Model the fold of this input.
Amino acid sequence: MEKMTKVSAISGRTMFCHLDAPANAISVCRDATQVVVAGRNIFKIYGLEEDGFVERLNLRVGRKPSLNFSCADVMWHQMEENLLATAATNGAVVTWNLARPCRNKQEQLFTEHKRTVNKVCFHPTEVNMLLSGSQDGFMKCFDLRKKESVSTFSGQSESVRDVQFSMKDYFTFAASFENGNVQLWDIRRPDRYERMFTAHTGPVFCCDWHPEDRGWLATGGRDKMVKVWDMSTNRVKEIYCVQTIASVARVKWRPERRYHLATCSMMVDHNIYVWDVRRPFIPFATFEEHKDVTTGIVWRHQHDPYFLLSGSKDSTLYQHMFKDASRPVDRANPEGLCFGLFGDLAFAAKESLMTAPPSVGDVGRKTYPGGDRRYPIFFFKKPDVTAQFAQVSSALSVFESEAGSSVGMDWFINTAQSYLLSGKPFAELCEHNAQVAKKLNRLQESTTWTMLRIMFSEPANPSLSTNHNLNKSGNLPLVNSFSMKEMSAALNERNKENRQDNIHSLETNLNNNDENEETEGSEGQAEYLFGDAELDDDDLYSMEHDNQAAEEPEYLLPQEAFPLRHEIMDHPSAPEPVQEKPESPHVSGSEAESTCLTPMESISLISVSQLLFSPHLPPKFFCPIVKEMLCYYAEQGDVQMAVSVLIVLGDRIRKEIDELTQEHWYMSYIDLLQRFELWNVSNEVIKLSTCGAIMCLNQASTTLHINCSNCKRPMSNKGWICDRCHQCASVCAVCHHVVKGLFVWCQGCSHGGHLEHVMEWLKQSKHCPAGCGHLCEYT
Amino acid sequence: MNENADICNHCRNMIREKAKGMKMSRHISTGPSSFIPENEIIGAMPLSDSTVMFIDEEYSGRVDNLTQVMGLHPHYLQAFLRCHYYLLRMDGPLPLHYRHYIAIMAAARHQCSTLVCQHVQEFEQIGVCSDWLRGLEFCPQRLRNLNEINKILAHRPWLITKQHIQALVKTGEHSWSLAELVHAVVLLAHFHALASFVFGSGVNPDPEVTEVNGVTGDLCPPAMAGLCTCHLTNGNQANGNPLRNPNTGSELEALMERMKRLLEEREDDDASEEEMFTRFEKEKKESLLVVSAGFVEEVVPPSPVARFVDDPSFGYQDFARHGEDNPPTFKAQDYSWEDHGFSLVNRLYSDIGHLLDEKFRTACDLTYYNMASHEGVDTSMLRRALFNYVHCMYGIRYDDYDYGEVNQLLERSLKVYIKTVTCYPERTTRRMYDSYWHQFRHSEKVHVNLLLMEARMQAELLYALRAITHYMT
Done:
């Protein structure tokens, strides 16, 4: 508490000043009243006043500024307030004494490093000890009372990027290297490091000791990670890891907040993030003021967590107030919707949404008792009382479509009988088969057929080739049967269902989608996916009707015991519209915000990922993937699908698959069909196959030897007259005409005739129509 | 040198005549390189197993001349092939045929018919849009838009600005996404640099490549091999005398002596900043004078490759020209490959950063600790001098490097060679190749070439990526 009272003396606001040149590093003096900014063309000291920065001193003096002023790093001594050290890009280490009476404050110059010095670091308690780390792979320790370094540490590896004295252990310092290693040294033993471990892949740009925890070291690397290591154990252990979006240039623990650290990045990303290492997925706070990369960050006072100073390549120096930081968690989107491959639907939303209006919610709950349809996925985090994090709890529901209810092989027979393999245009065949599969509740197969239709439809069909262009004009073309009208109808219907489900945001978003589709050109591509969705509708319905699922929040995070923080007064009143980039056709629901039934602060957004291929691709493009799919089906044991697709696609795919495999599939399928006594289908398959080996199955054993019914001798000729007795051999016993089609005869008396005639006859009489008196049987 | 040019055209005409009448033998010069005796290369191919496997898998076992020459340094070859293969074949933002077409455009900038032919063939194998091969005017506007940065990067990379990037990326019908652009830029830089290597070590066109028909046929006629004939002729002229030059015996010793002295001097060299600065400026200025004497600004002879070149008159100009406002020096510490270039490139085109990083690193760290006949020599100083000299010519300055070293270590004939190979590689001749480091092995000269190639590629990339970074911020 004593500390806190001392700190409270510091006051200020978010403020900035323009520098003349980009900054490379900044450092504050011990009493937090002055800050030094160093860069290639700048080296100045600014005073921190209540309402702005005031330039106190320009250390860059002399006619022609030497390269010794071109600083890569700067550090203000934490004990001696007149002492500064800089690392120069030309390899010099320079110390400055502000107490010198003349204009040139330079005190000592060490030119022992051969390459750029990346980092200088004063010992936290020892006045005269300075450490430097350089590109040449060496670290040097200087005693400021001497003209030369007192010891040299060779990392035996690549360039040193950072060196840091431990806050607690007097003799220890850590060094991070370009090859990803971190070494710990004892200042008294320059011959060998104490321990070494590989922290990152690629350079480790920075490291920072925890101000309180003796063993904690945070490192940041080019691999975009910040890791926290526990050094107190025998084996160095990674205890936390934060994944950022860009390479990490600096990392600094936040004072008085055990789990917080600030980072800035080296490239591309200009923001400063403060992370709670226990919540690595979303920054605790961000400062977004800089317009170019931030190069230096430092907490203004070592016991005050509310002031952060930063310098940047955009030539500004900022003081950030923690209360002005933006909190990404407040804008994070807690909703998600996703369709599974097999027609499942997962939906996550803020728990408050799922339960909120009791009138509708209760109805929803009552109508869906029983839990057999819900497959909640849990993760439960014990709330930490010290965590200042806004607890967001979301409920995730997964609707699973009914798994193939028919046990056994009924589906096989049904499918075999109902599939159309030829005789219609390609698109219709696919359409038909998709319907068949859908009826049999085989959604994956159904989707496959639909996809095939889309992939291989002729370019003349507007669905594929012109789709993209037409979209621009706002005219959405029909995609075969999935017109946008139908789609929206389907969606609206779904919405009704959803209303019962009490999923408000979904509804409004989808409605919004309907409204938008005339204006947003990019949405055309999403229709395929909605096409898939439409296929699922039946299942959704049926599921909801017959086997009703409870719709209560499956997953709850208890609210915190104390109210959420209220530091931030300026909540974004309107959510920022999510920018739609031309290349990512999200179906964005952000504008639906105002119509949302439950007021929320965050953006609710349902995105449908875009199609991966452009509609201009030639059908040939898909062949490899179709081939893969066929093999997949065959391997799954569903050779039926493989063969059916093979036949329907015909020449489009045949060349892609080798003959032997095809033959193997055909044989297996035909074998199966015959086992199920599906002779006709089997025959059709044989007929439609293109493999030589399969085709000749139909040619084998097609000869039928018959005897003349009069003279009982074998008929050798072709034709209908026996060449021995010169009589018509196969005369129908009913109508006495020669039978030239299907002939049926009794195996007892060998009389017979036209199939229909004999059938007809035997319905009325038990005796042979020829009058031989034999009691013929027709089965 | 004018003679050479004459011979060049002369041979070409002669061969063209011949080609009309009869099918001529293609193996004008045998072996992978026209500079290096065949047995030197064939003898030295102890490739690592993984490299061999890689070649077998990806190139169906066929080793082209380029690979054979690079095979003198198997360790490097592995890194190179991986990167090369990733750029051209693996997942990336650009479609395959675009990649080869960009390769053609880049190689054509330096009239490197070897590479052009190779990729024209690969392009044909893909089997789409083969009419693009008829020339630039047949390819889509989108690709043609690359011409501007192609020529700038090839000849004067320091001129590239964020406006160029903006023009390509700004939304419109033919716009590029940043990821695609980065891929294209890496391809361009890669093939510009590769052209340097091909010319610098006299890699012969692959015999198989010339056996083609159709569009490729007229692109890669046997006459292309004429290039080697010139080299051969040059070689014949120059051959013999350099090695037997009497005053070269001490050359190597002198160089080693200088290296030793420099190392000692370093300790007590307290050159002031101004002096360091002037040394860089001096080196930069001097690089202007290092022009291969006698080359008039020649008009590019019309060759079949020219159809892929737009604005052929745009060529190399010195970074620092007398009496003009020079572009500001590029400070390596402000935008380095390790810190900035890598992150950007890897962000937009995943994994390529690691491969390039590996390639640069391998090239820079490669050493066998010997120089000519001497063993156990630390050559890092020499390697760094070569690398930094190339960057110096491109106006990239390292604060922590004393450019006086360059002057001490690199003799004038070597500087001529370096400048030719990096800035206008198409003018490289065998005489230049032979005129420096007489006692060094061929593999060492190839090593020099690798360094030059990587330094050049990195310089181009740094300029291009800096422009992209500026565009993004």
Summary: The interface with chain A takes residues 171, 177, 266, 270, 272-274, 276-277, 331, 333-334, 338-340, 342-344, 347, 354, 357, 399-400, 469, 472-473 of chain B (CB under 8 Å).
